[in-house]
Amino acid sequence: MKVRRKSCGENDATLACRVRLRRCTASPAQTSPLCPACYLIDGDKQRPRDGVAILGGEAFLQPVGLAVLLCRLKARSVHTTVYTGYTLEALGMRPEPAVRAALELTDLLIDGPFVAALAHGGGEWRGSRNQRLIAHPSTLLSCTPGSAATP
Question: What confidence tens digit (pLDDT) does each residue in 75-107 have?
């Protein structure tokens, strides 16, 4: 099936992930989009979505594009789940305003790197036991930019 590409702005392409974890779901050589973000949001009216999970690669390496995507999804009342290899505390220390914006638009954050030794018993949503499921992650960050509250 061919997907007609719509113009959404500068953050429409998927960039290669620089984290390079073993057993990662994203190809390190992936430099072009498999499916433009616009199509995910606007393109398939026959199959409405009640939720979208963003995973594979590292979404917070592209915080502006991530925030734009999440904003458009939330405008359509779509539940958002974001997987990240960063911890919430590390994201809270990032200075980019788009990181905070993305966290405010995230309904469920699954944070922390995948650790193969902790894979057994990870559960349905986590790859390994060290990863946390955090509902509405921005509410756990303190009011001071660049710092994270202790949950």
Answer: 888 899 999 999 999 999 999 999 999 999 999
DSSP string, 31-68: -S-SS-HHIIIII-TTS--SEEEE-SS-GGGSHHHHHH
Q: What is the DSSP string of the chain?
A: ---PPPP--TT-SPPPPSS--TT-SS-TT--S-SS-HHIIIII-TTS--SEEEE-SS-GGGSHHHHHHHHHHHHHTT-EEEEE-SS-HHHHHT---HHHHHHHHT-SEEEES---GGG-TT-TTT-SSTT-EEEESGGGGB-SSTT-B---
| 2 within some domain | no
- Tens of pLDDT along 131-151? 999 999 999 986 445 444 433
In a domain, 28, yes or no: no
> What pTM, to 2 d.p., does this model score?
0.71
Q: How many domains does the chain have?
A: 1
